[in-house]
Structure formats: C-alpha cells, structure tokens
Design brief:
heterodimer; A: alpha/beta; Rossmann fold; B: alpha+beta; Heat Shock Protein 90; two-stranded antiparallel ribbon; 7 strands; 15% strand
C-alpha cells in the first residue's frame, strides 16, 4: 500500500483530501507538529518508507524543544518551517526514494527559490487553491508518485532561472 | 552699514535654509513612518485573507468529496461534510463580523445592536464543543462551573458569539495538549454583575502584557519572539474589547501568581 505522510498544523483543512486519498487506497498519516513528523520520518528505511511526504510551509514550532532544533531565525518565526524541516531531511528522503509535495496556501517566490536551490524539483510545489478540488489533488499526487525522478535530474541540470 | 546689512541678510538666509532642511527631514521622516504603517497594515490584511483562504479552499475540497459520497449514497459522509462546511462558514462569518463591526465603529459608523437574552452557559457549551471539533482539538476537555441561577445575559447575540468565538479559539490555540479549559459563569460578589471566565493552561501571558494585549495590532510577546502562533495579527482581543465596550461590557486578563501557564480572560456584563 502506498504510504503518505502529511505535515500540516491545520489538520481540519486536510480532512476532505485525506478522505479522497483513502478512497483511492492510500494509507495517510497526518501530523500537525514537527516532532510528530520527525518521529515518523525516523522510522523510514530504504526498505520501508513513506512514498510521499506532503509539507505545509507555515508550521508553528510548538515548544522550546522544537525551537532549539528549529530556531525562530531559521524558520522566520514559523513562516518557513516546512522548508527547514524538508532541508534537514531531504537527503534521506531522496535516498529512500520518497517524493515530496510542498502544499501551502500561498507560495512565496523567495521561499520557492530557496526550496529549488536546495534541490527540490519544480513539480513538487502546489498551492491549496490549485488543488482545492479533491480530484485535482488526487491526480497531482498520483502523477508525483508515478514520476521516476528523470525529470528532476533534467531540471537540476538545466535550470533556466539560474537559481540552483 | 551696507556690509552689516549684507551679513544680516546672509545670516537670515542661512537660518531659513537650515529651517527648510529641518522641515524637509521631518517631512521625509513622517512619510517614512506613514509608509511603514501602511506596509504593516497591508501585511495584516494579507494575513487575515490568508487565514480565510485555507479554510475556504478546504470547503471546496469538502464539496468535491461530497459529490463522490452522493454517487455512493454515503449519507454519513455527506452529513459530516455538511457539518464541516457549516463550521467553516460559521467561523469565517464570525471573523468577518468582528472585523467589520469594529472597523466601522473606528471610522465613525457604529452598528446597531440588539438586546438579546442569552443562556450563556448553554451557548458556551455548544460553541466550545463545536470549535473543538472544527479545529480537531479533541485532546482538550472542558470543565463548566456554573453558579446556581446564573441569570440570562442581556447582550447582542452576534457580539456574544463573535467575542466568545475569538476567546475560545484563542484558548484552544494556546492550550497545552490534553489540558482542561475551565469555563466559569458566576456573579461578581462586589458588583453583582455577570462574569464569564475562560481559564487555560498553556502559552503564558506576561504580567507586562495584561493591558497591552488588548491594544490594536499588539501581538503577544510569544508571537513576536518565537515561531509559535505566527498567524496572529493582533486584532482578536482588540476587537473583543471594542465590541464588548460598545454594549457596556468589559474584558480583562487574570494571571495566577503561582502558575505562570494559567491565564484567564474574564468578560463582565
């Protein structure tokens, strides 16, 4: 079964999309804190791992422990926590073959550039507005999961914006 | 004599030019300050819109998922979806009411209010459970402490609902996991007025913030310095105080001297 991990502090807003994913046979774990997300990612191995991680970007740190690991100046006081978490785990995600979808209400261009320069492919971004219909959301997830990574390599080596 | 006059004119000219420079500098500073405030307000507007956009996108998602439920005649899911959409719209509406009413008052267009009789404990219980479900804070529980024969509250129902929506929502946002929110309804001994207290264990409020926390665009110290609760604009508590003042009620913060994580908001009517 395809396993999806979803980090979003507004859990209520994920409800219809989780229902749609489950309807399509995906196993979905939604976590609302960085700590829970990292606990899930810790258990991932090359043999057994999540197939896709969906990251919200504006995720608040919940306590001093999280702020020691992700200080306010790194997360821009919570505005770019998703980027900080993804950056820390990106190598492991890549090694395991776990795909990433950055899904946020508003995608800040500067923030997108930082994700791109850290190696996340362009197809890995969407706004909640883009994917508000559950069918569109499912299509996007399925497309990402089917992708074999070839496109990612092409984009990395031919970056028209010159930001990598 | 002529030389003296010339010196005098030059001196005056120098003084006038200096004054002009000073005026230019002051004008430039004023413009910079106005621009900074305007930028801040734009940022606030962006955050408020952002706060509405997420739930509204999700409501569209719920509708699209209900179409599938309808084709499968899954009535349970349809009812759940309708409840979710109802919650989203109710919250968006209360948020809009608070902002519109308070800003209208600020620009000299006060709204008309009615005097409704409200069974506050009953309404608060319904609201607390609804908001807890809507925000998926099922780890939280409530304790209701209601004085015997607590009177019906005479207040505009929309003000009551929007103020307590803001307070309950804040309480749930800042409460520790698996904590208890205490909702107490009693009459103040000294005045006999009705007092409703919401007590939360969670993000502490500093004693220095007891008054400033109700000021317009005043974000809490925690919001300013950490990555927690980044979405705050600083209008929730300000609008709550403004709306309550408009109907003769007050709001204050009470801090527990020995337990810094325990704070209470008290509305008195």
């Amino acid at each position: 079964m395809v396993r999806i991990l979803w980090l979003d502090n507004d859990i209520a807003q994920t409800t219809p999309y989780v229902a749609a994913l489950e309807r399509h046979g995906f196993e979905v774990t939604v976590v609302k804190t960085i700590t829970e997300c990292e606990q899930q990612l810790e258990t991932d191995t090359l043999e057994s791992h999540h197939d896709l991680v969906i990251f919200d970007v504006m995720v608040p740190t919940k306590n001093l422990n999280e702020e020691e690991r992700y200080p306010p100046d790194i997360t821009q006081r919570g505005i770019s926590t998703g980027l900080a978490v993804w950056s820390r785990w990106s190598n492991r995600l890549r090694q395991n073959g776990t795909k990433t979808l950055v899904l946020t209400v508003r995608l800040d261009q500067a923030l997108k550039n930082r994700f791109l320069s850290a190696g996340l492919p362009k197809k890995s971004f969407a706004t909640k507005l883009d994917l508000r219909e559950t069918d569109t959301f499912i299509e996007r997830v399925q497309k990402l999961l089917k992708d074999d990574g070839a496109q990612e390599i092409v984009e990395k080596s031919h970056d028209p914006e010159g930001i990598k | 004599m002529l030389a003296n006059d010339r010196d005098e004119v030059e001196k005056k000219l120098t003084e006038t030019l200096a004054e002009l420079d000073e005026l230019r500098r002051a004008r430039h500073e004023n413009i910079s300050q106005i621009e900074a405030v305007a930028r801040q307000r734009q940022d606030d507007l962006m955050i408020i819109t952002h706060q509405l956009q997420g739930p509204l996108s999700s409501a569209v998602g719920t509708v699209s998922e209900m179409k599938h439920a309808a084709s499968n005649r899954d009535w349970e899911q349809i009812v759940r979806g309708l409840e979710d959409i109802g919650d989203t719209l109710e919250d968006a509406m209360l948020l809009c009411y608070m902002i519109v009413t308070t800003l209208a008052h600020e620009i000299g267009r006060p709204s008309a209010f009615s005097e409704d009789l409200i069974d506050a404990p009953r309404e608060l219980e319904l609201m607390a459970h609804r908001i807890r479900k809507a925000y998926r804070r099922l780890d939280l529980s409530f304790q209701f402490l209601v004085e015997h024969e607590f009177p019906l509250l005479k207040m505009d129902k929309n003000i009551f609902k929007s103020v307590f929506y803001a307070l309950l929502h804040n309480a749930m946002k800042y409460a520790d996991d698996h904590s208890i929110i205490i909702i107490e309804c009693r009459r103040e001994l000294s005045t006999g007025r009705s007092a409703i207290k919401l007590a939360t264990i969670g993000e502490p409020i500093s004693p220095t913030e007891v008054e400033t926390i109700f000021e317009k665009y005043e974000r809490g110290a925690v919001i300013k310095s950490t990555g927690r609760h980044h979405s705050g604009v600083g209008i929730g508590l300000w609008t709550a105080r403004q709306l309550l003042a408009a109907v003769g009620a007050t709001i204050r913060v009470e801090l527990a001297p020995t337990e810094p994580r325990l704070s209470s908001f008290v509305v008195v009517q």
